[in-house]
Amino acid sequence: MPWPTPRPDDPATVLRTEPRPHTVAPTVLKVVIAGGFGAGKTTAVGAVSEITPLSTEEYLTEASTGVDSLAGVEAKRTTTVAFDFGRLTLPDAPVPLELFLFGTPGQDRFVDLWYDLSRSAVGAVVLLDTRRLESSFTPVSFFEDIGLPFVVAINEFDGAHRYHPEQVRTALKLPARIPVVACDARNPNHVAGVLLTLVDHAVKTTPTINLQDA
Amino acid sequence: MRTYTLTRGRTTPRHLLGLETVLEHGPGRPGPGQAEECERILALCRERRRSVTELAGRLCRPVTAVKILVSDLLDADALVVPVTAPYAATDTDADARPSPQLLAALSAGLKRKWPDAMAHPQAG
What we know:
The complex is a heterodimer of chains A (214) and B (124).
Chain A lengths: L10 H4 L9 E2 L1 E9 L5 H8 L5 E8 L16 E13 L6 E9 L5 H8 L4 E6 L8 H10 L3 E6 L9 H8 L7 E4 L4 H18 L9
Parallel strand pairs in A: 2-5, 2-6, 6-7, 7-8
Antiparallel strand pairs in A: 3-4, 4-5
Helix pairs in contact in A: 2-6
Chain B lengths: L1 H5 L15 E4 L10 H12 L2 E2 H8 L3 H13 L3 E2 L2 E2 L15 H14 L11
Antiparallel strand pairs in B: 1-2, 1-3
């Protein structure tokens, strides 16, 4: 969890008499929703978010994107990437929780952002449009590589051919342990169900503290 | 370039802030000559706690620019990072994942909010 770097007390603030409210903020948990263009990421975020999904921009510079085929060809280049943000509070959870949802496109150039979003995240949902299966290859490999728990959710678009989740599993060469589920990204119950599936999966894959290795 | 002007030429935030770092308003006042966006950030955080990403989205400004402005406001004590319950078992681990207890709490919270939502049963 990132914290601002400590700084020395500002003497000007010492004289303040107004008591500072001592409140404990809800614990924040993150879920990444990745998918190709038009897979329904914004719709899925909006289905459960308490705010209209916000489109947020971030710069990615050549320096931070790591090895790139353009390295050395062009000087430092800045690209802008946009991602969606939504949030929901769970005040009735055993501890007050706030869940942040980050919707991010599935192209290679977003990988740097995915690292940022995946840090300390509960896991990821790879949202899939079966008409564009190939757009999920990159996020699937990424989350597999970094060991972040993820589930694949097929967004069942009206009029699109319905594939059985097992057909999708075969097409994506996913191991049996990765959940593949179908949903309607517009339906809050469905999206919440996908999140529950992810949480269950994350519980199973959370390594318990391994004392043997200590 | 407008963003460059907004941050007065700075390209790196002084504080280590994550996309999900949450800010709440503090008792301090920002110094004079702050960007108009700083007032908007403070107004938004007076309403409720907001994350860095949400502030950037609402201001329609890139995350890095907002982090730079937020750093200024943290220095002025106009914003503070609220105390939260421990996130994961090991705070020192950069890749720390939420503890099983937190995941259980999340699951319970989601079920209470959407009683009709069903987790898809999975083998394994």
